[in-house]
C-alpha cells in the first residue's frame, strides 16, 4: 500500500528554515513567479534546455500535502525562476477518489503524481493520459532502472518517470539492545530465524507487529506476504501473481503465506508488548514497533517511512535508539529482492511547458534538489548519497542503487482495488485471527473478477 509519511515537528522546523533560506536566495515564491530574470546566470545553466516557456503555468495534482508539499515547492523553485514556468501544485487527501472524477469530468490537471500503477493503467487504457515525450522517456531511461519504468508502461507506451520512492524490505531493531545482548544483524533468512529463536529463549518475544489502520486494516500484513513471496519465488512468478496469471490460491502463494505464518502466527515469536497472535489485528500499525524502544520486543518488519512513527526524540541511526536492516533473502545468491512503492509523474496534457516540467522531474537535477531538502528517497540513480542526510533514507537509496537489487512494486497496489485494497486486506485480518491459509486464499481468489 502507498503510504505518505508525516515528518515530526523538528522536521517541520527544519523545512521552514529551508524554505526561508530558499526564498532569501532565489527571490520569488513558487506561486508568484515573476519571470526568468536570471535565465542567463550560471545557476540557470542546468535549466537551459527547459527554457522558452516564460509566463506559462503548469498544474499538478497529487496526494502530497502539508510540509511535504512545501518541500516539493522548494525543490523546483530554481527551475521556475530560470524557466519562467509557474508550477501550481495541489495536494489532496482525496486524491485517489477525486482524480478520476476530475479527469472524467474534463477537468484534468496537467500533471498528476500517481502512486498506484493500476490507476495509471486505468487512465492509459481509456486514452486519457498523454504518452511521455521523447525527452522525458530518454531522461527516465538514463536515470531509472527498467524494473521501475515497466510500472508506468502500458501496452508498450511509456507514460512517465517515478518521483519519490519508499523501500518496504526493512526490519527495525535497537542497535543498543543488540550490542548489549551480543546479537548480530542477520544477513540471511535462516540467520534471522535463528536469532528469533535465541531472543525467544531469552524470555523476550522477538517480534512485534500491528495491522490495524482504520478502514485500511490489514495492509501491513499484505506487505509481509509480498515481501516473502519475493523471497520464496522468482520475480516472474511474483509478476504473474499480481496480474492474476496464476490464481491467488496457487500453492506458491500458500507457501509464502505459510512461511510468513512461521513468524506472525507463532506464539513463541509474537506479539511482544501487546499480547498473543490475535493482538496483531487490533494493534495500530503506527504503534506496532514502539515496544522495541521499551525492550519488549526486538524486531519489527516495516517500511522506510516508519522512521517517522517512533516516539519523539528517538534517534534513528546505526548507532541510535532504533535503526533498520534489510529484510534478508532466503537465498542471497539469487539476488536482493526489494519491495517498495512510489509515485509516477503522468501527463493529461502535452503542451510544451507541461512536457518540460515532466522531463525536469525525471532529471538528476530535481532528484538532488529534493534530496538536499531532506526526508526523501528516490530510485533516481543520479541521486548523490552526500545529499541524503537522513540515515534510513541513505540506506534506502543505497539499496535502490544496488545493482544486485531486484525491485518489485507493492503487490496490492498493482491488483484491482477490490482485491488489493479489499479482500486481500480483509483476508489477512481473518488469517491472523485464526482462519486457515486455504480458506483465506480461496476467498480472495473468488473475489478477483
UniProtKB/TrEMBL annotation:
The yes or no answer to whether the keyword Signal is present is: yes
Kindly state which keywords UniProt assigns to this record, in alphabetical order. Answer: Signal, Transport
List the Pfam families hit by this protein, alphabetically: SBP_bac_1
- Signal peptide range equals 1-25
Q: At the top level of its lineage, which domain of life is listed?
A: Bacteria
- InterPro entries registered for this protein in UniProt: Bact_solute-bd_prot1, SBP
Q: In which family does this protein belong, per the annotation?
A: Belongs to the bacterial solute-binding protein 1 family.
Q: What is this protein called?
A: Alpha-glucoside transport system substrate-binding protein
Q: Which organism is it from?
A: Micromonospora phaseoli
Q: What is the lineage of its organism?
A: Bacteria, Bacillati, Actinomycetota, Actinomycetes, Micromonosporales
